[in-house]
Amino acid sequence: MSGVGTNQERGVRTLSLDAPDTRNALSASLVRELTAALTASARDDDVRAVVLTHTGTTFCAGADLREPPAPDDVVRLLRLLVELPLPVVARVTGHVRAGGLGLLAACDVAAASTAATFALTEVRIGVAPAIVSLPLLPRTDPRALARFCLTGERFDAAEAVRLGLLTAAGDDVDAVLAPVLDGLRRAAPQALAETKRLLTARVLEAFDRDAADLTALSARLFSSPPAREGMTAFLERRDPAWVL
């Protein structure tokens, strides 16, 4: 059963992806619930910032292949994270795969424990990181990122910091984030909103320019024969037919 847990302390609202049985994969229902929770947070004058975190050992495993969300809904969710007039801070203590990296890239600050691992696994199931690239490419080193997009290899938190995917990493992620949250609590709400608008302008340009084309590409690839083979192989825990 998918869901989003909510907690609030001193103006910081924590939203927790709470579908550990599916490794917090982005199902249609989870995307709807997270979109609703973020929208409600933006409308609440008592909320100064949002922390996006998770239950279980995985922050987000990407799209739920059994209940996949519509590409348009994923684009709306990612754009909402970028456009939200509140700073959004990702807190990661587990693994992140595929579309989960899009969530991280759409956040304003992202921190992870050194135990976390990351992978852009789309090519291994016959698709491409199309929608994920909207927030990811403007915020990371494209030359360094190319290797992981093309190979689907796993990389660690230190590499994620070097790429620009993470702001910081440490053994104790809460200790890493403590000064960040303290700083957000000390900042004026209007100043935070306007500063975020300055910082996200380039990311939103990518959405305005490329979202329609990448949404169409994602839909086309996910309905293709290679993707059907790749997703079936993944669910059956075997290599797809193209593996040499």
What report would you give on this structure?
This protein is of the alpha/beta class. It has a single domain (1-171, 189-244), classed as 2-enoyl-CoA Hydratase, Chain A, domain 1, CATH 3.90.226.10. It is 48% helix and 18% strand. A six-stranded mixed sheet has the order 1-2-3-5-7-10, with helices on both faces. Helix 1 (28-42) packs parallel to helix 2 (71-83) and helix 2 (71-83) runs antiparallel to helix 9 (201-222). The longest helix has 22 residues, at 201-222. The chain starts with a strand and ends in a 9-residue tail after the last helix. One of its GO terms (molecular function) is catalytic activity.
What is the fold named in CATH at topology level?
Answer: 2-enoyl-CoA Hydratase, Chain A, domain 1
* Beta content: 15-25%
Please, what is the average pLDDT? 96
Strand arrangement within the widest β-sheet reads 1-2-3-5-7-10
List keywords for this structure.
244 residues
Question: What is this entry, summarized?
Answer:
By secondary structure, the protein is of the alpha/beta class. The chain is built from ten helices and ten strands.
Helices and strands in order:
Elements (H helix, E strand, L loop, with lengths): L3 E6 L2 E6 L10 H15 L6 E6 L3 E3 L10 H13 L4 E5 L2 E3 L1 H8 L2 E5 L3 E3 L13 H7 L2 H10 L2 E3 H7 L4 E3 L2 H14 L2 H11 L1 H22 L2 H11 L9
Parallel strand pairs: 2-3, 3-5, 4-6, 5-7, 6-8, 7-10
Antiparallel strand pairs: 1-2, 8-9
Organism: Streptomyces doudnae
InterPro entries: ClpP/crotonase-like_dom_sf, Enoyl-CoA_hydra/iso, Enoyl-CoA_hydra_C, Enoyl-CoA_Hydratase/Isomerase
Pfam family, one: ECH_1
